[in-house]
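[Discussion] Sanity-checking designs against the backbone

I'm trying to build intuition for which residues belong where. Below is a structure token string of 357 positions. I'd appreciate it if someone posts a full sequence so I can compare it with mine line by line.
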């Protein structure tokens, strides 16, 4: 019913709208979470390299504004505020005045995004079919939805308008003052960040495993361990830190960029399948990511030299995903296996090690 109303409203509203001619003005839509937005950065880089004289803007979320700030590929960022219903007209007015001839929808979870794009007068609206809340009709060029990595899917959208793919690696641009503000005291010890939480409980490796891993790292290495997470994960962080000698808690308090400045100083991040994995990849920091209910072939580190994805297939068929209260599939992955992967990655990254026991 909602979709029928939106389709009808767009049909009426578009009767008097102009159609923008080819002016090399591109709008990219990436209005979701941390990892989803970082996955857009290779395509943005390729778009800039392929069309150096084009105007390239991005409509994004508040966290996307932090991720894409200072990105040299982008001419302008537009902020999507929610609830979108209240900002729809003012946002449409701003974007309509830009006269975009091309809209590329990388990822959007807000239903109103699709009629908004349809009302901008663009000649072509490109996106992946089948993932648009039943509103594929607003795409002028729907692409097939194949089982490919999310970065590759975005690259294919850019390729549809003629962009060449020369880069598939993530990017994040910290400023010198941001690095200085987050500078840790000098230390000869290896710095390891452990991220035991995630927004979705079914993606979490058992907390007890993180604790045991942290204990084994302290036994085996001369290292400082940082337990990271947000305010909602404070209890989990404290429980983990209490059982690891000398572990420090770093709680992200509103600023993704300050967290990124801390993460850049880490010699290793060990994390569940969540946004910091991709932030570490964008910063070219070594990372071990843990997967079971999700498949790293579709959403894990991609073309990242310093990343290891440890994957155990789901034990339930079909996987219950968000309905799962106890992801026992993760019991297939023990702390010793993660410890061994840590040794390999730190050695490959040429970080000096004490002898592992």
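Best answer:
Here's mine. Compare freely.
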């Amino acid at each position: 019913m909602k979709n029928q109303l939106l389709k009808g409203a767009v049909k009426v509203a578009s009767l008097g709208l102009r159609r923008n001619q080819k002016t090399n003005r591109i709008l990219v839509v990436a209005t979701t979470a941390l990892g989803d937005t970082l996955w857009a950065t290779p395509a943005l880089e390729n778009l800039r390299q392929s069309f150096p004289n084009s105007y390239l803007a991005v409509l994004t979320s508040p966290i996307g504004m932090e991720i894409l700030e200072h990105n040299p590929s982008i001419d302008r960022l537009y902020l999507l505020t929610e609830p979108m219903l209240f900002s729809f007209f003012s946002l449409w007015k701003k974007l309509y005045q830009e006269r975009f001839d091309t809209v590329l929808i990388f990822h959007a979870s807000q239903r109103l995004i699709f009629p908004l794009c349809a009302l901008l007068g663009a000649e072509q609206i490109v996106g992946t079919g089948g993932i648009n809340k039943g509103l594929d009709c607003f795409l002028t060029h729907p692409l097939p939805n194949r089982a490919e990595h999310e970065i590759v899917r975005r690259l294919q959208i850019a390729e549809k308008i003629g962009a060449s793919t020369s880069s598939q690696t993530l990017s994040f641009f910290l400023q010198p003052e941001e690095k200085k503000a987050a500078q840790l005291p000098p230390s000869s010890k290896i710095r390891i960040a452990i991220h035991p939480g995630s927004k979705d409980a079914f993606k979490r490796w058992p907390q007890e495993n993180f604790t045991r891993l942290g204990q084994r790292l302290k036994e085996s290495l001369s290292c400082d361990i940082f337990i990271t997470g947000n305010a909602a994960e404070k209890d989990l962080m404290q429980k983990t830190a209490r059982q690891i000698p000398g572990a420090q808690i770093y709680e992200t308090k509103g600023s993704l960029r300050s967290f990124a400045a801390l993460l850049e100083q880490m010699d290793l991040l060990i994390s569940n399948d969540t946004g910091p994995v991709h932030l570490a990849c964008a910063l070219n920091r070594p990372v071990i990511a843990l997967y079971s209910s999700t498949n790293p072939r579709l959403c894990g580190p991609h073309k990242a030299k310093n990343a290891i994805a440890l994957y155990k297939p789901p034990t339930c068929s079909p996987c219950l995903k968000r309905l799962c209260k106890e992801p026992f599939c993760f019991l297939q992955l023990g702390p010793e296996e993660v410890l061994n992967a840590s040794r390999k990655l730190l050695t490959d990254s040429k970080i000096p090690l004490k002898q592992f026991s």
